[in-house]
Each structure stands twice: as C-alpha cells, then as structure tokens.
Amino acid sequence: MNTKTTTADAAPQALTLRSWLGQAVLYALFALFIGTFSRWPLYKHLPPDVALIKLSLVHSGKPVGDCRQRSAEELAKMPPNMRVATSCPRERSAVIVEVDIDGERAVRTEAAPSGLSKDGSSAIYARLSVPAGERLIDVRMKDDVRSKGFDYRLERRVTLAPAQVLVIDFDPDSGAIKLQ
C-alpha cells in the first residue's frame, strides 16, 4: 500500500482549514460590531429631573341621539325582516379631553369615533415631559355631545420623581379617570 499523500489530497484540506478560519474571523467581527453598538452611543430616555405624563385612553362616546319608537305606518313601509319598533342612532359622540398641569393648559384634544358609521371607540394618546416635583393635575373628559360641560373630572396633586412615568387612563367599569 502506498501511504504517501499527494498534493492533490492536501489542497482540499488546506482549503477547508482556511474556510473555517475565515468564518471564525467574520463571526468575531460581527460579534464585536453587535457588542459595540449595544452599549454605545448611550441613550437616555429622559433628561435628568424630568418626569413623563402619558395620556392614553380608548373610550366609546355616548350615542349622539336618543332612541325613538317607530310608528305603525313607518313599520308597514319597511320590509318584514327590517321591522324593528325601536330606532337608535349608531353614531357615537367624539371624546374631548383637557389636561391642565399647575393651572396651565397642557393638552386639549378631540378624538372622533372610529368606524365607517362613526360607531367605534375614540383613541387618544399624548406624551408630556414635565419637571419632576409636586404637580397639580386636572383632567377633564367629555363623551356626550348632548351634555353641557365635561362629564368626568379628576383633580389631584401628585409628586413626580425624576424619570417617573404617570399614565392617565379612563376606567369604563367604574366610570372614572385614573392616574397610574
């Protein structure tokens, strides 16, 4: 038997060794790249001594009108499968929210109801950066176009720490504005 290796056999072994080394170098460079940019540049969510107030709510306004009873003549003109004695409007009222911080208006927004028939929920989102410390927050919300003034109100004094996030929300089960 001939146990000598020929140059033709040595070439594929050298090629695979170079491939493995090249692949290891590329993976090391990639890991270095990821490691570098995962720590640099430094990102600060908020400047020092600043807190964040987020107004975030999704709420369905009240219907724009009252339900009414249809007359016998109206029902007779309608197809049999559409004869419902009570007619209620689908359209909902827009939701209006005002937020005052320390007696100054910070936000006033109006959100129209979603949906083709304007019968869905209204969504509101606002983000306010305020100096940390004690603040007087006054939140008012109106969800009925037929009422005068605001339907819901919350006035509270809060102490905000630096980098604290305070969320203003509405709880439909309790019917109250909440600070979290």
Question: What is the number of strand segments?
Answer: 10
Instruction: Please report the first level of CATH classification, the CATH class of the largest domain.
Output: Mainly Beta
Strand content: 35-45%
Q: pLDDT below 50 for ≥5 consecutive residues: which ranges?
A: none
Strand order of the largest sheet: 6-1-9-10
Second rung of CATH, namely the architecture of the largest domain: Sandwich
Fraction of residues in helix: 10-25%
CATH topology of the largest domain: Immunoglobulin-like
General description of the model:
This protein has 180 residues and is an alpha+beta fold. It has two domains: 1-43; 50-63 and 93-179, Immunoglobulin-like (Sandwich), CATH 2.60.40. Helix content is 22%, strand content 38%. The strands form three sheets. It has a four-stranded mixed sheet, with no helix packed on it. A four-stranded antiparallel sheet has the order 5-4-7-8, with no helix packed on it. It is flat, with a radius of gyration of 32 Å. The mean pLDDT is 90.
